[in-house]
Amino acid sequence: MSQVIAFTNSKGGTGKSTLCANLAHTVAETGARVLLIDLTPQVTCTSLFLGGDMEAEETIVAALKKKPEKHLEDLVRESDKGLDVVPAHTTMADAVLHLSTIQLGKEGVLKREIERVRSQYDYIFIDSPGDLNELTVNAMVPATKILIPTRINRTDFSCTETTVKFIRDAEELIGPRTVRVVVNMLDPRYLPNGSWHNSHAGRLYHQAQETFNGSLCAIAIPDSSDVRTAFDRGQTVGEYRRQSVVAQRIRELAQCEVLGE
């Protein structure tokens, strides 16, 4: 059975969508069959892999209804980067509204759609929205693992703790889930051998190890202009600068949290 990896965090600006896109592409480069489902109104993954504007009925919005206008297999698009994508739309709030009107089983709408295509893929990545709402729960239900990217600051830590609590509370409904916190966009000077190790932010890095003990991924993703430049060029960082440190760390993350499972 394929793995389903959901990305979430209640705070924006953590690089969640970009990390999801880069990790999915990295896994696809190994020859694995990969599907990425975009649930975000920012359509970051959709833009990177598919580009262009689409009508709402051509996106995941059409499937997230009590009576779907289209099923997931009708919405899958093949990208030119070796993986398939189910696009999102800027009107994802409409999907939240549709889900909220379903009285029974609304948390399992996306899972039922995924089951229609699950056998066709080795890995399914879901980029869920920043809000902790019906879409987030729908991403969590089919997930075999939930990854929460966070940055090194108190606000991000607080929001990440809120996200973890939201997931743990939801487990009463959906059952236990493997949750991993990934430090993202990290300045290497905050690491133990770095020149800012004893700074406030450096101490926060140690706090992350204590706060998320047992859930913190051993691989931290460094901050890098290569990621932003690659996205501006319509590329993943692996395409743009494969030998960069950040591309190497993402490959290590893929091995640690996805391929090595």
Characteristics:
261 residues; alpha/beta; Rossmann fold; 7 strands
The count of helical stretches stands at 11
- Note the run of SSEs as H and E: EHEHHEEHHEHEHEHHHH
Fraction of residues in H or I helices: 40-55%
**CATH H-level homologous superfamily name:** P-loop containing nucleotide triphosphate hydrolases
In the CATH hierarchy, the architecture is 3-Layer(aba) Sandwich
- The structural domain count equals 1
Largest pleated sheet: 7 strands, mixed
Apparent shape: globular
Distance between the termini: 12 Å
The structure class reads alpha/beta
For the secondary structure, the number of strands is: 7
Average pLDDT works out at 91
Reading off the top of the CATH hierarchy, the class is best stated as: Alpha Beta
CATH fold-level label: Rossmann fold
Strand content: 5-15%
Question: Could you describe the 3D structure shown?
Answer:
The protein is of the alpha/beta class. It has a single domain (3-219, 249-259), classed as P-loop containing nucleotide triphosphate hydrolases (Rossmann fold, 3-Layer(aba) Sandwich), CATH 3.40.50.300. 41% of the residues lie in helices and 12% in strands. The protein contains 11 helices and 7 strands. The chain has a 7-stranded mixed beta sheet with strand order 3-4-2-5-1-6-7, sandwiched between helices. Helix 1 crosses helix 11. It is globular. The two termini are 12 Å apart.
